[in-house]
Amino acid sequence: MSGVRFELNGTDVEVEGSGSLLDALREELGVRSVKDGCAPQGQCGCCTVLVDGAPRVSCVTPVRRVAGRRVTTVDGLDTETADVWADAMVGCGASQCGFCTPGIVMRLEGLRRSGKPMDTPAIERALAAHVCRCTGWLGIVEAAECVASGTSCAATGGERDLDAAATRATIEGGPQRVDAAVVLGGVVYGDDDAPSDALVAVPDALGDYHVAESLDAARRAAGLVQGRNTTVAPSAPIECPDGDWAVVLQTGWVEPAYLETDSAWCAPGGAPSDPLANAGAFGGKTRSPVGDDARRLADEHGRAVRVRWSREHVVRHGPKRPPMAIALRSDGTGVVRVARTAGIAAALRRVADDVVIDEVDLAGPPTSADLRGAGWAELAIARAALSTPPGAPVTITAPDGATATATVTNPGSDAAAIEVRVACGRPLDPTVLRSYCIGAAHQAVGWVTSEGLAVAADGTVGDLTIRSFGIVRPADMPAVAVQIADDDSDPVRGSDAVFAAVAAAVWIAQGLPPTWPTGRPLHSDA
Ligand code: FES
Ligand code: FES
C-alpha cells in the first residue's frame, strides 16, 4: 500500500497508508501531545486534532482520509493562540491531570475558528464529544468563555504562585504540575518517552500480553474488539439484610474512569517509567502492574517494551469501587455487607467501629479500597442521611481532617445547584482547590445518579467503553459554588470530603432511593 502525504503543523509529511490518523501521528511521527484515552472507541476526545481547521477525532479517522489536507495538533498553534488557551485553562483551573486537555483545546479552538457564536450552549455542545474525569467541566467552560470574550478568568484572579498551586494539586490528586505545559501537551505520560523502536505489549481479554513491533500489530494480536455497551442496567449485587432500618444504601461496581489508561515502558534491566506521571488516577493506579510487566517483558525480549492497556482492558481488569449494602438503625449502628476487598474493613472502621462488617465473595471485576474515599465515604454518607433533612446542609469530616459542607438546591430542575464549603488547611492556591472541589462534586453527582457498571452474574463486565458507565456530561452538570474556609492549619486533601458531602446532599435531596445509581438526573433541562 502506498504512503499518505499530508501537511502536519505546516510541514509536509508522509506516512504508511494504513491505520488511523492517531496511530500515524503518535506511532509513526512521534507526536505525543495527541493523547489516546480510548482508541479505537472514538469516545473520549483526547485524540482530537484539526483537519483543515475543523475538529476531528483522530483515532477513528483513517489516515488515508487526510491525504493532501492540513492537520493541526496543539503543537501547531501559533504562539499567541497557544498562550491564550494556556492562560485561560490555567487561570480557570480547567486542567488537572491534563490528559484530556490538548484534545479539548483543539475542539474549542475549532469552534472559535468556525465563526459560529461561542456562547455557553455552543461550548457545552462542543464538549459533549469529550470526557474530562477530573475537573467537573465548569472550569473548562469558563476558560472557553474567557477566550471567546478576551477576558481573564473571574473565578479567582490575582497573582498566582504556580509552585504553591502544584503543591495543592499534589495534595488533592497525587504528584503533578500546574502550568502551561500541562495544557499544551508538554507533559510526558506513561509511555510517551519510550524509544521509537520499543516493542509494544497489549493484553488480550484474559490478560495475556501480546508483544509486537507496533501498537497496531499488538492490538490485532490481542484480538481487541471495538468497545461495546450493554442495555443491562448497572448492578447493585449485594442486598441489605431484612430488618427495620432507618437508612439503607446499596451500591454497585463503579469505574474510576481515569482518562490515561495504564501504560509504562522499560528497557532491559532498567527501571520502568511511572504510570502515574501526572496525578493519581483517583487511587486507581496505586497498584497498577504495568511497570513491573514492562520490566519483565523487556528482560524476556532483550528489548525496550511499552505496555499499553486498552480502555476495555482497564474496564475489565482495573480496580473498581467495591459494591456494598449498608443498613443502619437510627442510632447509627447496623450492618455493612461489602465485596471482599483488601483494606475495606479498616476504611469503614475509620468512620464507625459499632457497625457489623460482613465481607462477601462476589464474581466481578477487581475491587480496591484505594479509590477515592472507598468505604469511609459510603458509611459517612449513610450516617449523615440519618440526621439531615432534605435541603439542609450536609457536613462530613474526612478521616484526614478536612471538613466539607454541601447543599443542593432545586434538584431535578434546570436550576439545580450545589454549594460547597471546604476547610482543609491553608488553600495554597484557591484556583486549584476550587477546581478539585468542583471535580469531586461532579464525580459525586455521577456516582449517586448515573454511574455504575453492568456486571453479569458470572462476573463478566458488560460496559466496556468510556461513555457506557454514566459520567455526567457538561450540559447536565449543575452550577457549583465553592467557598474556601479561612484556615491556617497545615493543608490536607479537601476534595475527598467534598466528594462525600456532595454525594450525601444529592442523595438526601432525591429522597434517599435505596440503590445507586438512582437513575434520576440532578440537573435537567427537560
Ligand atoms: S482516543 Fe480517540 S476518542 Fe478516545
Ligand atoms: S484534566 Fe481532564 S481528565 Fe484529567
Outline the structure in words:
The chain has 526 residues and is α+β, with helices and mostly antiparallel strands. It folds into four domains: 4-72, Beta-grasp domain (Ubiquitin-like (UB roll)), CATH 3.10.20; 76-183, [2Fe-2S]-binding domain (DNA polymerase, domain 1, Orthogonal Bundle); 188-224 and 262-309, no CATH class; 324-509, Aldehyde Oxidoreductase, domain 4 (2-Layer Sandwich), CATH 3.30.365. Helices cover 29% and strands 16% of the residues. The protein has helices at residues 21-28, 79-91, 101-114, 120-127, 138-149, 162-173, 180-183, 215-222, 290-301, 311-317, 344-349, 376-387, 430-449, 495-509, and strands at residues 4-8, 11-15, 48-51, 54-57, 70-72, 199-203, 209-212, 247-250, 263-266, 305-308, 324-328, 334-339, 355-360, 394-397, 403-409, 417-423, 479-484. The strands form four sheets. It has a five-stranded mixed beta sheet with strand order 2-1-5-3-4, with helices on both faces. The protein has a four-stranded mixed beta sheet with strand order 7-6-10-9. Strands 8-11-12-13 form a four-stranded mixed beta sheet. Helix 2 (79-91) packs across helix 5 and helix 13 runs parallel beside helix 14. The mean pLDDT is 94. One FE2/S2 (inorganic) cluster binds next to loops.
Topology:
Elements: E1 4-8, E2 11-15, H1 21-28, E3 48-51, E4 54-57, E5 70-72, H2 79-91, H3 101-114, H4 120-127, H5 138-149, H6 162-173, H7 180-183, E6 199-203, E7 209-212, H8 215-222, E8 247-250, E9 263-266, H9 290-301, E10 305-308, H10 311-317, E11 324-328, E12 334-339, H11 344-349, E13 355-360, H12 376-387, E14 394-397, E15 403-409, E16 417-423, H13 430-449, E17 479-484, H14 495-509
Parallel strand pairs: 1-5, 6-10, 12-13, 16-17
Antiparallel strand pairs: 1-2, 3-4, 3-5, 6-7, 8-11, 9-10, 11-12, 14-15, 15-16
This protein binds FE2/S2 (inorganic) cluster (2 copies).
